[in-house]
Amino acid sequence: MKSFWLTLLECTLILIIAGAITLILLVKIYLIITKEGMYMKFILKRFLWSVLVLIGLSILIFIIARVVPGDPARMALGPRASEEAIQQLTKELNLDKPLATQYFLWVKGVFKGDLGKSIMSRRPVLDDIKEFLPATLEVIFLAAFIEIVGGILLGTISARYSGKWIDNVVRIISYLGIATPAFVWSIILMLIFGYLIPVLPILGRIDASIIPPPTVTGFMVIDSILDGNMEALSNAILHLIMPAISLALAGLSQASRIHRSSMLDNFEKDYVGTELSSGIPMKKVLLKYVMKPSLISTVSIIALDIAAMLGNAFLVELVFNYPGISRYGINAMLNKDLNAITAIVMIIGIAFLLVNIIVDIIAAYLDPRIRLQGGAK
Amino acid sequence: MNKKFRSLISIILALVTIFTLTACGSKTDTPNDDNSSNTKSSKREVTDEDYIVRVTGSFPLYTDPGVGSSAIEAAAQINLYDALVFADIDGSIKPHLAESWTMSDDGMKYTFKIKEGVKFHSGNDLTAEDVAFSFNRMLAIGEGFAYLYMPYVKDVIEVDDYTVEVNMKQNFGPFINTLVRMYVVDKELVMENLEEGSYGEFKDYGKDYLLTHDAGSGPYTIQEMQLEEHLLARQFDGYWQEFSENSPKYFKILSASDPVTVRTLMSRRELEIVDEWQSVDNILELSKLEGIKVPLMQAGAMVEMYMNTKIAPTDDIHVRKALSYLIDYEQARTVIYPDTNQSVGCVSSVYKGHNDDVFQYSYNLEKAMEELKQSKYYGEFDKYPITCAWSADVPDEEKLSLMLQANAAQAGLKIDIAKTQFGMLIQQAQTVETSPHITIMYPGDSYNEAGSVLALRYHSSTTGTFTQFEWLLNEKVDKDIEDALSTMNEEERMNKYKKIQAFIVDLCPTIWVVECPERRAYQANYLEWPEADAAMEGKLNAPIMGRFLYFRTMKVFPEKRLELLK
């Protein structure tokens, strides 16, 4: 067993080498971006801060998961496991070492692509993530599509016919969507399309009677296309419909309200009046000149909601027995599966940070002032 | 948006619509448990894949006999593997892989004759070498049901191809009964699939491989194992016992547990048997569906309220007795847990060696008050609020805790109710200080003798685990249990069990509420389930975890299922 100091020395050396390489790259990038202007500098600064945030998050979740009372080895092996078996698993999980040593060993593992072993699945956490993350992402992508298209569409219609009956109908639908949790929608959709009018499947990712495509990406839809298996493709899409709609409805409703307000705000601006009095058709004014600035706040909300779906999908996955990362994550927390908990929290953290950066890039595209000022103030 | 972009969006939407509308599955060699089979049922021929029984259960699920020990794992193991002995529906132990056995006069050596001609799923012959290997494997890994053997079994030796000798460290009276858990694994297959591990020359003992495969000789073999989703097994054609014409050709354990999902699956006839953890309300709703029956299957579980005997105020026996008097047992057995009986003592009546001649509490506020007056905390109960924890996975427990809270308030006791995730309960059980004052649990155990429950529930070796929140730590109880378990004469052993039960009832560490049968809604219209029939006739007496789901003796009639779907 290595001593704490030797491990610390190892990790320090690794960090120094990694830090030196990163510094060299950063200097090179800096030299490039000073030619590209302030906005690129802003994005890069955000990216670097994100790395620091992730490091902080990893330390925080690492400590929290381990200081919460309870012996994960005992929980994993059951009440009647022998002391030897419990000690063996404790050693495998490095739980017999000091907290700092455990963290450095974990970091070392991460650099090697080893996120540790899950005490629930009894296999590497990375294998679990490869299996479950694409499943949830597939639902999220469809949910995101529904949310973006539906939210913007309903918001635009609502703004265009503000005060009329269409606006009121959309308002009611939106409030229903916002007030109702995703899992309730899951149950309602299951009752309607799984029980009363049984046209959609209610379990899993694909019917048992259909040969699934070989796993390439882990996305059933993409793998089916790559395999040329149209039956699997259509069946996989059917399995996605209800979970995706359940997840999307709350965000869609919220986005439609925000987009409506934003559109109405921009519609009252002077330049719109000028354009209309110049003879530009209302449709063109709405879709070209009012839509673009209105999307900035809508995109921010939608993006954060999409990132939150990774964690919020748990109950939806439970209802539809969908083997996704969210359900896996909750089970990891309930069973004190330390390695899995850390990995899941890091994934959700990365998702939020990436989404924030993407939102900034989209906002800059939509509003040139942001680009020229070097980022939102 | 420009025209090109709009056109692109339109094309994408059209493609998605076309693909969605072309959804239909073709037959493959895997069972039909999907919606397409329902919509086409009126015209479809019955195939082998329709002979399937689907059950819900909790995941993750470890089918490895050296690892898994929960109820659903035991159910999977009994179908994938063969044990040395087999428990019949009436509770009697029959020879299985062990054709016969002898015991030395001092009870320290057992010699088993192993059945010849049994094949593993791999095609290998099952011999004494596999039996010895399986025993030693279980003892080395130390998980699963190893606790039954570790204190008692010294070594296991292969005498010849079909004879195994087990040498004991000490006498163990119930040893033969415990062999219902001694499943035999294919040594050759396991050794071919070793990964890096800590068991010396045996590396990981095949634990990695057996996560998703089996190495058994049982009536079924794993076809597909999705760790968080389902286990699908198919009939093993080379099995040494017969199947009937309508025996299930497949069984599937699904991880669905949500009540709405379960009800929808049952109504669509995509699920045959429901898990035992559904709430009573959900079971009652299921029983209203056409063709669904709900047998009450006594598995030896009781609804119990474990009282922490080491923290105030439940460390005072008078407080514990008062709490026992504050439970309305009549309401519990008729309303909260309908059609059940009040528990008698600390061991279920279905176990051999049960003592039905012990003191039984009833709801009595006056007696509760009398007991509280004798307590050292009398007059200061407001300083000692009592926490009653119930498992979030079992909604019926909340009703019981609310009932106790309301009744206790009349006696001047303040009870705080804590809905707790099962994982958190396991954590809380690990120390005296974190164990709640009262915890509601349903213990069950591994073999048909009162001693298995007594050892599990009240021996000091199980403190710190979720099987004992009481922290009884009583030397006399420990010695008596050890003595009883080492008694070879059955009648004498049963009598010792009875004395221990009477002693424990006097200590009152637990409120024994009702005997809790498993309520499993099932599709009686097209599934014949012998254990359910025996339960409904009052002849079921096999309190062995997982035993009820023995698929080989079930019969499924897919034509009747298709009729229901028309």
Structural notes for this entry:
The complex is a heterodimer of chains A (377) and B (566). Helix content of chain A is 78%, strand content 0%. Chain A contains 16 helices and no strands. Chain A has helices at residues 4-36, 38-67, 72-77, 83-92, 99-111, 125-160, 165-179, 182-196, 220-227, 230-267, 270-277, 282-312, 314-319, 325-334, 338-366, 368-373. The longest helix of chain A has 38 residues, at 230-267. Chain A starts with a helix and ends with a helix. Chain B is an alpha+beta fold and 566 residues long. Chain B folds into three domains: 82-202, Dipeptide-binding Protein, domain 1 (Alpha-Beta Complex); 218-298 and 518-564, Periplasmic binding protein-like II (D-Maltodextrin-Binding Protein, domain 2); 302-515, Dipeptide-binding Protein, domain 3, CATH 3.10.105. Chain B has helices at residues 3-21, 35-39, 71-80, 128-141, 175-178, 187-192, 259-267, 280-287, 317-325, 329-336, 365-373, 396-410, 422-428, 450-458, 475-485, 490-507, 530-536, 558-564, and strands at 52-56, 85-87, 93-95, 98-103, 109-114, 153-160, 163-168, 220-226, 230-235, 250-254, 292-293, 296-297, 302-307, 341-342, 386-391, 415-420, 438-441, 510-515, 518-519, 522-523, 527-528, 555-556. In chain B, a hairpin with a 5-residue loop joins strand 4 (98-103) and strand 5 (109-114). The two termini of chain B are 50 Å apart. Mean pLDDT of chain B is 90; it is low at 19-29 and 34-42. Chains A and B meet through helix 3, helix 4, helix 6, helix 8 and helix 10 of A and helix 1, helix 2, helix 7 and helix 13 of B.
